[in-house]
Amino acid sequence: MKLNPNYAKLNESYLFADIAAKVRAFVREHPQADLISLGIGDVTRPLSPAVICELNAAAHDMAAEETFHGYGPEQGYGFLREAIVRHYAAKGVVLHDDEVFIGDGAKSDLGNMTELFSESSVLLPDPGYPAYYDVNVMAGNRIHFAAGHSRNGFKPMPPSGRRFDIIYICSPGNPTGAVYTREELKAWVDYARETGAVIFFDAAYEAFVHDRSLPTSVFEIEGARECAVEFCSFSKSAGFTGMRCGWTVVPHELAGGALNKMWLRRQTTKFNGASYVVQRAAAAALGEQGQYENRKIIDYYMRNARVIHDALTAAGIRHTGGVDSPYIWMRCPRGMTSWEYFDALLERAAVVGTPGVGFGRRGEGYFRLTAFGNAEKTARAVARLVDVTLAMTNRK
């Protein structure tokens, strides 16, 4: 048999699998420990009442012959695509419903979209979401990195004299929490149009941007319809990490309409659509009551982010994020590697975070914390983290 040789180029296991293994070992050795995770970005608040109500109603539909739903349209039910079009209209962005494709989450589509391109030169943010790297290794693409660091606010800008086929941008950024301004994003759009690149814009955390001067969609930028695909998700905005639903926008102007047709063809062959029940719930999340309820949940997480941000600020611990993002990106103490700090924090504080090196070479020496937790536990965890970190910093 002929196996894909690109898989041999991947790390042996995924970042979060390594973290889970270390946590399991710690729990076995310390079964009474008050372990608190500020690590994986999984939501913890229950689904909103409006979403639950619609889930129940949709489930009842499946119990009667006249309202039962089998295979649905691969690109998504019209009622959800129309709700997403209205969601963008509120931002001042005009979309057509046949430019919107419903999937089972942004992560899947960000990977699957690479199938529509032949071997490509790809520019990834470093640090960045590790799945970006993995899916392009699997595809055999040539990978290059745009350096994010404290001097540019972890927001890389277009390089001069270089051309790439695909450019990944995440804003608000995972893991750094950095958010591009309109002017900064316009520079990327102009660069992509000038060089013939396509931007894969990951907007999974758009709902956490409170500053209205900041863009939450690449399509708020003039010219983006000619050079960008946008991926978004209900995972964090509506608590759908276990429900699995997201969407991808492929404009008609991109590649003269060819990419939209190709993605539709790919989906009709390889995807049978997100379930009717989940799509009904997703539409409810975008309704007036659903948005009101989910905003309260997002505000809960952002209060956690503020607690972490304020505690680190008061302690003089360098960090970014935690303002228009649920992620906080902090500097490890005393030149420690990110895995050294992970181990020390786990053993001395029973607190879990994410080692920055798992997000790329330039993530070494940094550590990601998330606001997706219980408020009381978050406050307790960050107090322990600060105490342990300051003790490390002041150690002779």
Description:
The chain has 396 residues and is of the alpha/beta class. It has helices at residues 15-29, 49-61, 78-89, 106-112, 130-138, 182-195, 258-270, 276-285, 288-315, 338-349, 375-393, and strands spanning 36-37, 100-103, 121-126, 142-147, 166-170, 198-202, 228-233, 246-249, 319-321, 327-331, 351-352, 354-355, 366-370. The N and C termini lie far apart (58 Å). The model has no long low-confidence stretch (mean pLDDT 95).
- Name the overall outline: globular
Low-confidence stretches: none
What composes the largest sheet?
A: 7 strands, mixed
Order of helices and strands: HEHHEHEHEEHEEEHHHEEHEEEH
Please report which band the strand proportion falls in: under 5%, 5-15%, 15-25%, 25-35%, 35-45% or over 45%: 5-15%
Structural class of the helix and strand makeup?
A: alpha/beta
Question: Would you count the extended β strands for me?
Answer: 13
Spatial arrangement of strands, main beta sheet: 2-8-7-6-5-3-4
Q: List the total number of helices.
A: 11
Question: Which bin fits the share of residues in helices?
Answer: 25-40%
Distance between the termini: 58 Å
Average pLDDT, all residues: 95
Instruction: Give the C-alpha Rg.
Output: 21 Å
